[in-house]
């Protein structure tokens, strides 16, 4: 009969914190110092519920699909103020229950910080609900139509080609 071996570490390269350290900066989120992880695979910002002030809940929800899951998860969103070496802004983040205490900085907020690192603390909506995305798309289409109409009204008549009517 085979004997059981005692528990032993076989291969331990490093802890999760060591692997993520090069992608993490220290910053202040809503007045609390914490690590901010720049995740290039995340579209939306994410924060643990233990760091939120329930008065800052936005009353909105965002649908998130995790990398290894086929199904979507509905998460609440909350407003946050972020200060770090990348910049300073107010934005919204999806709230999760099982996070190790990092603020996950997604692509949209990172791009906004890259373009203009100090945004006069106006609130930036880095996550959009379905209705907000639809409304934004409709507003963009309306602006394009208005620009085309404006272009059409600002032309000069060449009287040699088109004489004015009496």
Summarize the structure in words.
The chain is of the alpha/beta class and 166 residues long. 23% of the residues lie in helices and 34% in strands. The protein has helices spanning 16-20, 107-115, 130-153; strands spanning 24-29, 32-38, 46-48, 57-65, 72-84, 87-96, 103-105, 118-123. Strands 1, 2, 3, 4, 5, 6, 7 and 8 form an 8-stranded mixed beta sheet that branches. The termini are far apart. The relative contact order is 0.16. The model is unreliable at 119-124 and 152-158 (pLDDT under 50).
What is the architecture of one domain at the second tier of CATH? Beta Barrel
Radius of gyration: 25 Å
The pLDDT mean sits at: 72
What is the CATH first-level class name of one domain? Mainly Beta
Number of helices: 3
Can you say what the CATH homologous superfamily of one domain is? Acid Proteases
- The low-confidence parts are 119-124, 152-158
Helix and strand element order: HEEEEEEEHEH
Kindly report how far apart the N and C termini lie: 112 Å
Helix content: 10-25%
Largest sheet geometry: 8 strands, mixed
Beta-strand portion reads: 25-35%
- What global shape is seen? globular
Total number of strands: 8
Query: Which class best fits the helix and strand makeup?
Result: alpha/beta
CATH domain fold name of one domain: Cathepsin D, subunit A, domain 1
